[in-house]
Write a structure and sequence with these properties.
The chain is α/β, with parallel strands linked by helices. It folds into two domains: 202 residues, UDP-n-acetylglucosamine1-carboxyvinyl-transferase, Chain; 206 residues, Alpha-beta prism (UDP-n-acetylglucosamine1-carboxyvinyl-transferase, Chain), CATH 3.65.10.10. The protein has 14 helices and 24 strands. The protein has a four-stranded mixed sheet with strand order 22-23-1-24. A four-stranded mixed sheet has the order 2-15-17-16. Helix 8 runs parallel beside helix 10. The chain is globular and about 60 Å long. The chain starts with a strand and ends with a strand. Bound molecules: uridine-diphosphate-N-acetylglucosamine. Uridine-diphosphate-N-acetylglucosamine binds next to helix 1, helix 5 and helix 6.
């Protein structure tokens, strides 16, 4: 299995291009099922997760080809409204096909995702909402089988859920009558999905807000070409890494509007931020001020940058708190950061980080996509060499992360056991 080796201590300087957003492209790929025909998605990152979603669409009967960061998806011949366990268990976002399959075929058979390293990640909001929309929803041998023609209604989500909002949206666009989603997610990836669906002919109002109103339509049509927005989590990862290592980076094609809370906190932590021609420039002398942070749904601080922020705070000039209000159990990175010398204690979903002067390189292990990014960040600033194993997690969500860091001056490379 591949490892990432890092020799810490270098500053990061230079420009990098941020890729398309993983969490935006995955639901949009499934939305292509809704109307038979050919679609082209551009600025699509080359990731394990986009390849898994391509494979799922192929199993459903679509033709999918990828080259030069573009995906051509033809859903004309889709004929198997089913998402099998072997794919869903490796990528929970596969559950997004439930809404589109139900809309197109009147039936959808999707494996329940099962466990996850972040603790329980249920899909009960999705299922309750589809029942409220009139579908029959049953569990059979580990598979959810949803059937029926959906009829618009008001859905009140108990908590904000990105996945449930996206899934229900894709079912509701062709439901009979009006669907209102209260407490909807308003993450940029959901807004982009709404824009894509509206280009297909859907009638969704309330974009960028917590209330979405969907007037069901009889027919949708394919979108010839559509560009995926930049990945705010990849952008945030490189910004946090430079804040801790020191240096100056410019992110090309990052959208500062999607990162406002993160940029504000980085400034509080001691970095200088400038926006030039839409690019984000961060300058840091590597001295970190302690700043408390709580994750919240958008526009709050994203849970997908919590682990990276924790790496930053390990070297702050005092003690800081991190509360994860979105995923209460998403703290597997603490044990690994501790191996590098970090001082962190955890009580329920609240971590207390005592800033120290230096981390020291060690052998560490990735546990999920974003935890891996936090370990790379910590290793980039640690004294000596670190070796990070189980990096298949990072390939799910970051394209060529070590090459991008190397282009900024980091001493980082991938080591294959086969060599
Ligand atoms: C998406 C993102 C993930 C991000 C998360 C929160 C994708 C592919 N993944 O995941 O990277 O960390 O949003 O921003 O876009 N919940 C329930 N029942 C449900 C659904 C959710 O209790 O049916 C809870 C979850 O356990 C969690 C919270 O709601 O505590 C938010 O989860 P959700 O927004 O649904 O996350 P995902 O869509 O799975």
């Amino acid at each position: 299995m591949d490892k990432i080796i890092v020799k810490g201590g270098n500053q990061l300087n230079g420009k990098i291009k941020i890729g398309g957003a993983k969490n935006a492209v995955l639901p949009i790929m499934t939305a292509c099922i809704l109307a038979p025909g050919q679609y082209k998605l551009t600025n699509v990152p080359n990731l394990k997760d986009t390849r898994t979603m391509s494979e799922l669409l192929r199993r459903i009967g679509a033709d999918v080809t990828y080259s030069n960061h573009s995906l051509i998806i033809n859903t004309e011949n889709c004929n198997t409204p089913e998402a099998p366990y072997d794919l869903v268990k490796t990528m929970r976002a596969s559950f997004y096909v439930l809404g589109p399959l139900l809309s197109r075929f009147g039936i959808s058979k999707v494996s329940l995702p099962g466990g996850c390293a972040w603790g329980p990640r249920p899909v009960d909001y999705h299922l309750k909402a589809f029942k409220e929309l009139g579908a029959s929803v049953e569990l059979d041998s580990g598979y959810i089988i949803a059937k029926g023609k959906l009829i618009g209604c008001t859905i009140n989500f108990e908590n904000v859920s990105v996945g449930a909002t996206g899934n229900v949206l894709m079912g509701a666009v062709t439901a009979k009558g009006i669907t209102k989603i209260n407490n909807a997610a308003r993450e940029p990836e959901i807004t982009l999905l709404c824009e894509f669906l509206n280009l297909m002919g859907a009638k969704i109002k309330g974009l960028n807000s917590n209330t979405l109103i969907i007037e069901g339509v009889d027919k949708l049509s394919p979108v010839k070409e559509f560009e995926i927005v930049p990945d705010r989590i990849e952008a945030g990862t490189f910004l946090i890494a430079t804040a801790i290592c020191g240096g100056e980076i410019e992110l090309i094609d990052a959208n500062p509007d999607h990162l406002q809370t993160v940029l504000n906190l980085l400034v509080k932590a001691g970095s200088e931020i400038n926006i030039k021609d839409g690019n984000i420039i961060l300058k840091s002398n590597g001295k970190i001020k302690h700043v408390d942070m709580e994750t919240e749904p958008f526009p709050g601080f994203p849970t997908d940058l919590q682990a990276q922020w924790m790496a930053l705070m390990t070297l702050a000039d005092g003690t800081s708190l991190i509360v994860d209000n979105v995923y209460a159990d998403r703290f597997t990175h603490i044990a690994e950061l501790t191996r590098l010398g970090a001082i962190i204690s955890l009580e329920k979903n609240k971590a207390t980080i005592t800033g120290i002067k230096k981390l020291k390189g060690a052998e560490i292990m990735s546990t999920d996509i974003r935890a891996s990014a936090s370990l790379i960040i910590a290793a980039l600033v640690a004294n000596g060499e670190s070796s990070i194993s189980r990096i298949y997690h990072i390939d799910r969500g970051y394209e060529k992360i070590e090459e991008k860091f190397r282009s900024l001056g980091a001493n980082i490379w991938r080591k294959s056991d086969r060599n």
